[in-house]
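Sat 14:20. Reprocessing the chain from the morning session after the first attempt stalled halfway. Input below, unchanged.
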Amino acid sequence: MLLYDTGYGMQCYQCDSNEDKSCPSSETFDTTLNALVDCAGFEAKVPGTFCMKIVQRSPGWNGWEKVTRRCGSRSDLGVAWGCRFSYEDMGTFKEICYCQDADGCNGSQKINKSFLLILITALLQIIIYLHF
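Finished this time. Tokens:
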């Protein structure tokens, strides 16, 4: 007799605020409007074993904000749970949060966000940029 596991893998929210009105960047994310996607299934745009939430903000008064929620198979910095902050070209702020503690863990509005940590990271980036 052949036995195999028919269970689901990690389930995450999958949406992009630039493409989907049910995935707002500036309002509260409504988990009742978005279905969880099986990260091991064919519906996942990016198959994976954990969830990700990516927030990007441009600088300035008329700046934009984009939020992407999806499954992930690898992180830019290796396997490191929690949030990472960086600045991209032209000063765009980028926050990437990785989680796998529960299905739908990328559905929260804030994932371990600390204003002080963001401020310190920004100041260090500016100091390093101006010093070198």
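Strands lie at 11-13, 15-16, 36-38, 50-57, 65-72, 82-87, 93-99.
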